[in-house]
Amino acid sequence: MARPTLHQVAAAAGVSIASASRALSGGVASPRTIAKVRAAARELGYFPDATARALRTGAPRRITFAVDDIGNPNYVAMLRAIEAEVGHGGPSVSVTSTGSSDQAVELVRHAATAADGIIISPIRVNDRLRRAITNSPIPVVVIGSLGEDAPVDVVHVDSAKGIGTAVAHVAALGRRNLVFLNGPLDTNPGSSRERGFYRAIRTGGLDPDRCRQVLADDFTVSAARKTAAHLFAGWQRRRAVDRPDAVIAANDLMAIGAMNAATDAGLRIPDDVMFTGVDDTEIAAVYNPSLTSVSLEAAQRGRLAAQLLLERFEEPHRAPHLVSVEPRLVVRRSTTISTAEVLAS
Amino acid sequence: MARPTLHQVAAAAGVSIASASRALSGGVASPRTIAKVRAAARELGYFPDATARALRTGAPRRITFAVDDIGNPNYVAMLRAIEAEVGHGGPSVSVTSTGSSDQAVELVRHAATAADGIIISPIRVNDRLRRAITNSPIPVVVIGSLGEDAPVDVVHVDSAKGIGTAVAHVAALGRRNLVFLNGPLDTNPGSSRERGFYRAIRTGGLDPDRCRQVLADDFTVSAARKTAAHLFAGWQRRRAVDRPDAVIAANDLMAIGAMNAATDAGLRIPDDVMFTGVDDTEIAAVYNPSLTSVSLEAAQRGRLAAQLLLERFEEPHRAPHLVSVEPRLVVRRSTTISTAEVLAS
DNA sequence: TTGTACGCGTTATCAT
DNA sequence: ATGATAACGCGTACAA
């Protein structure tokens, strides 16, 4: 019942283990031996063990990329960049979706048996996870942030600042009634983006009474659509000062959910309401209307994380690095009033 | 310069390798030993080797998921399903983007050093790849097709049939001037979908002279948009019989590129032109207007492929399985004339 | 508490 | 062409 080994194949074929190895992996061997060994291997259902083979032949390193849900386009962009960075001859990269925080902790604890290094992008970080990461026997690179001065390599982006650029952008276009459509606040993205929104309101000289945050249950299209539907109910009947005229969403998916709700409510985009997202996913570029979005440079962060990890493999002693990338506003039609319309107004 | 081993750490700390192992992985050891060993490990820049540790502790199997580009949402859906299927205790799944066919061949050849099994979804398959797969020393599951009776496990979906359901759908809605917007024909998806289109024209009793295939350079939004722009140039000025009134795209991305081109040309969707895609990616559901799409059940195919591989691990002797899933048409607004409009016409 | 010695499954070297 | 044997780096039973 146990998995057959080369030993057993050799025994069954009546040859030495060395001959068996050669016969199967294309070394020198007589046709007769090859036939016998192949027959025995087939008979026993033998497949070579990747781990043992790797150990013997000097395998490339293995790195694990741990995220909450690999279905998220943002993480896909990172994965793609990581994979490109390590290249084909280099380490293999395996993916694991952690789901809950607890699973992330378990993962980090036990990953050392399965990987030489970890790149993790946690959405919720608590003390247990922080400890698991700093105590990890193998190098960990965090994409995101881990709190102050944790002694690990970190790739960081100031998403609060990113929200700020979006707020400033719509404010410069004359919008005053801003709604920040956020997800759960007990997450890293949720809390930092909330901070960014309120800070931008203050520094931008906007009226805090006309700007507010509303929360969706999740960072998804459907949750955002539901929440935004309430927001737009009876929009036309309200006084101008009570009408949201710009929605800053915490990510692209939520922005799209909100735009769908706006369309359902008969609102024109961007004339009645402008929309911005975060992440600059591919969908933002192709959506109709195309979506202004704050790029958090997911691909670049993935690439940098991979570089950091590879460098740590080479120089284990190096002091932990904190590398930052700048958010970048990509302006598209969801915040662009066409010249004709501007002239007409 | 070489990577330090536990031996060297033990030597540097002046203890046995066993004590070093225990000191580092939390076994019983005196505080003094622990301190010495940790110091030595830090000094040397020691990290445990994942492969060796895995071999010793009885590692889970490793499977490689090989696709042309993991950025493709379709492959992401498969990956996600595979990862969910094998679960957390099970095999680890690593991802590799092959890009060209040649790289796919190399991958399959050398993957045996790095994995216990392969799930591959090739977009172009030639004889070399076919041979590499059938000769692989470790089990391979193909998502797609490999030609007749190749002795490997295959998860298949009849995409030609899928195109047929889309053609029948728009035909039933009265459309007669169909355009099939396809990608390169020297690919598996390209050739099989072309077949499906022409077959559906024949069996559906449509006039072949009013239906045609146009080719984009690639299966992407931008390529499709460019090609479709030509298609719609001067649409309004043409005779009705010369106006395309339905575009069947080879995938969702291309459908969206084409819809963008249609919008640019001032056409109304679906009234002037209907659109259908293939793959039923998330973007189809949230696009504006939402996109009718032929689901090829990517997630289910991923899940089935993982099952097939796991089963082969357990029963190496089993005859190769060919499991098929049925395409499924998901109707959305891009092919739905609202009741009001129907009454008005 | 510490050290010795063996084995995980495979490939490579060296004789024969 | 084939077989015995030594590694690859690590964990652990056993003995001290």
From TrEMBL, chains A, B:
Q: Which SMART domains match?
A: HTH_LACI
Keyword presence, Transcription? yes
Q: Which Gene3D superfamilies match?
A: 3.40.50.2300, lambda repressor-like DNA-binding domains
What range(s) does the HTH lacI-type domain occupy? 4-57
Top-rank taxon, per record: Bacteria
SUPFAM superfamilies found in the cross-reference section: lambda repressor-like DNA-binding domains, Periplasmic binding protein-like I
**Keywords, comma-separated and alphabetical:** DNA-binding, Transcription, Transcription regulation
Point out the signal peptide segment. none
Q: Which CDD domains does the UniProt entry name for this protein?
A: HTH_LacI, PBP1_LacI_sugar_binding-like
Q: Among its keywords, does the record have Transcription regulation?
A: yes
Question: This chain belongs to which protein, by name?
Answer: LacI family transcriptional regulator
